[in-house]
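Thread amino acids onto this structure.
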């Protein structure tokens, strides 16, 4: 089992324990691969739910560029909803998990 597989297993456990979501492992794997090398970097692998610039990156780089969504209030609402579901008190919000939940939220699985 490689490092990426270990991380995917950890992300699936996070989804189940912290978000109450049974992960679609195939989609989670594709989202994780889509995150690229950032998943191996301690700082880049997580999303700070209280950092406005970090949330802007999620919105612009992922939702608009990757998923092809148009910029409107629904994007900010979705990000806030995901942060709420993940748990505001939970410090480590994994980027792949946040992206996975946003992909499911907008029903954009076809992107992957």
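Threaded sequence (112 positions):
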């Amino acid at each position: 089992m490689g490092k990426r597989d270990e991380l995917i297993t950890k992300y699936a456990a996070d989804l189940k324990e912290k978000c109450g979501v049974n992960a679609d492992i195939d989609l989670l794997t594709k989202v994780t691969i889509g995150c690229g090398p950032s998943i191996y970097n301690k700082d880049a692998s997580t999303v700070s739910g209280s950092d406005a610039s970090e949330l802007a990156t999620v919105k612009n780089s992922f939702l608009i560029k990757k998923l092809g969504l148009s910029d409107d209030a629904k994007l900010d609402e979705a990000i806030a909803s995901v942060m709420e579901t993940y748990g505001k008190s939970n410090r480590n919000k994994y980027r792949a998990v946040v992206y996975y939940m946003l992909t499911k939220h907008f029903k954009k699985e076809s992107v992957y």
